[in-house]
């Protein structure tokens, strides 16, 4: 059975506005739907049937969300994506370094894809995009593992030669950062293609 | 009357909204009901899309909004025209009058000579 709250969750998910404004928008949409429902119930309609008809008249939640996002987009599309890429690179670099220092290079680097994808998803606010980001990150797992194994021939921090250890740390930062950015960029492009507004205001 | 929607209506909804708000402050559902009533059901659109349009007008400084309590249920967010919005409403009405006049002349098929 359709519910007003479920509908509003979908219609308001992923709005990149401050929480107070998001709540204001949701409150306004809810007031509309509740008044329609009250009118329908007063006319003797059954609750379930009334809700179904009211939501159909209101529009698909994805359509409403896309139109709201077209108006309430606080950042430019590319600025928003760039932020995601930078965050993905940062996460990738830090994780890569930590894993290499801990002596779990392959396993740790393998986690980068998932972490970067999740980072993008989290930045995107929407649960759908989070899942998409995680999925893309997971798909890079094998690529990350292979890359980490290939790089494992280079010196480690445990090396007795300080320059070699420093080289290894720097290499971890660089490869992790680049890898994180690549993953983030891929996730960004894909999830953005999937979620760009396909509707606008009337 | 059959519903009129799509592009024909889409480009003119803002004119309808601004004109109605020029008469009195209204909240979203009230606007939707009034448009349906005056057009005798001909103008049909997804009601949820009315709000992005109102928010767009507000961001453009053409309307302003304020919550008011309702005795019947939840509070309602009323929209009213700003001075800039009144000018824009008048401009859009003039454009529409000129457009409909030109359309009528063309569709009427009267040609000189």
Give a description of the structure.
The complex is a heterodimer of chains A (202) and B (113). With 202 residues, chain A is mainly alpha-helical. Chain A folds into two domains: 4-72, no CATH class; 77-195, no CATH class. Chain A is built from nine helices and no strands. Chain A has helices spanning 4-12, 19-42, 47-58, 61-72, 77-101, 105-123, 127-139, 141-151, 162-195. Chain A is elongated and about 80 Å long. The model of chain A has no long low-confidence stretch (mean pLDDT 71). Chain B contains five helices and three strands, in the order ααβααββα. In chain B, helix 2 crosses helix 5 (83-108). Chain B has a single domain, classed as Winged helix-like DNA-binding domain superfamily/Winged helix DNA-binding domain (Arc Repressor Mutant, subunit A, Orthogonal Bundle). Chain B is an alpha+beta fold. In chain B, strands 1-3-2 form a three-stranded antiparallel beta sheet. Chain B has helices at residues 6-10, 13-23, 28-38, 50-59, 83-108; strands at residues 26-27, 63-68, 76-81. Chain A binds chain B through residues 11, 24-25, 27-32, 34-36, 38, 57-61, 63-64, 67-68, 70-72, 199-202, and chain B through 9-10, 13-14, 27-29, 45-53, 55-56, 59, 72-77.
Fold topology:
The complex is a heterodimer of chains A (202) and B (113).
Chain A (H helix, E strand, L loop, with lengths): L3 H9 L6 H24 L4 H12 L2 H12 L4 H25 L3 H19 L3 H13 L1 H11 L10 H34 L7
Chain B lengths: L5 H5 L2 H11 L2 E2 H11 L11 H10 L3 E6 L7 E6 L1 H26 L5
Antiparallel strand pairs in B: 1-3, 2-3
Helix pairs in contact in B: 2-5
